[in-house]
Amino acid sequence: MSRAFSKDNPVFTLADTSTMDGKNVQQGYMNLFLGSTIGIRNPSAHGNEEMEQIDAIHFLFLASLLLRKFDTRI
Asked: What NCBIfam families is this protein classified in (predicted)?
């Protein structure tokens, strides 16, 4: 995720990285994608954890936000 959404030389551009604001947006989404992979997906995939319905709904909201941003990238 760090390489794919890097603010300096991204594989996938989510904002205008020629401006400081754009670089900040790019880095913010990079951190969200990275955190989602490390903090949400990995424990769920590698552990046998139970999840409450409300938590699952919130994770789906986050996934929806990230995928929508990815689908509408520059």
From this structure: hypoth_ymh
